[in-house]
Amino acid sequence: MKNNFFTFKGFHPATVLWGLILLGATAVAIEPVLNLFPAEWYAPVGERIVNGGWAMLAALVIAPIVEEILFRGLLQRWLVKKWGPWVGILVASAVFGLVHRIPQQMVAGFCMGAIIGWTYWRTGSLLAAMLLHAINNALSVFLTLFENERTAALSLRQTIDNDAIYLPFYLLCVALVVGSLIIAILRQNRVVRNREPVEESH
């Protein structure tokens, strides 16, 4: 991983854009899992955001800065150095998810953390991680503010209300997530093979 901690060096717009696309695709892909949990568990989060003030400031500004410094800049960075990128990214993402405590946020936080962690590992730029985190939270806040009592209880599938549209879209999102994971694994395996020392011929 490059050492571009608080700089724009290594800040590749294409990598960040792909991270944003993956965040959206993953949100769609995991929604059926999140819907298995009671909606009332997540309701207090939405209420705090709607009330504005400190909760909104924390979601849009404080959390992206503080959490990325702690979980990507410190924890993931240390874990990657000790055990490699896969363990580092996944363990840091698991811890990131667990601290959110609410089951829906734990699952979503792990997935979001993995994507942001991968972006940070690829670019070495903590600013890229902060930007992804801030945009993700801003979209969540926007959707929460513009929901009403009827739409808040609806899943994306119910909102679209047309399986001919929803199912291909859902499968496309799943394919993007799975395909990106496979590509990341293959690329990492290639990097590892290239770094293996070549035996000297005798």
Please characterize this protein's 3D structure.
By secondary structure, the chain is mostly helical. The chain has helices spanning about 15-35, 40-50, 55-85, 85-100, 105-125, 125-145, 150, 155-160, 165-195. The protein is globular, with a radius of gyration of 19 Å.
Topology (SSEs and partners):
Elements (H helix, E strand, L loop, with lengths): L12 H22 L4 H12 L3 H30 L1 H14 L4 H21 L2 H20 L3 H4 L3 H5 L2 H33 L7
Helix pairs in contact: 1-5, 1-6, 1-9, 3-4, 3-6, 4-5, 5-6
Largest beta-sheet characterization: none
Tally of helical runs:
9
Oligomer: single chain
Low-confidence sequence ranges:
198-202
Radius of gyration: 19 Å
Whole-number tally of structural domains: 1
| Tally of DSSP β-strands | 0
The backbone outline, from C-alpha atoms, is globular
Share of residues in strands: under 5%
Report the mean per-residue pLDDT as an integer.
Answer: 84
Residues in helix, %: over 70%
The SSE string, one letter per element, is HHHHHHHHH
Q: Pairing-aware structural class of the strands and helices?
A: mainly alpha
Distance between the termini: 34 Å
How do you describe this structure in short?
Helix content is about 80%, strand content about 0%. It has 9 helices and no strands. The radius of gyration is 19 Å and the shape is globular.
Keywords:
202 residues, mainly alpha, disordered C terminus
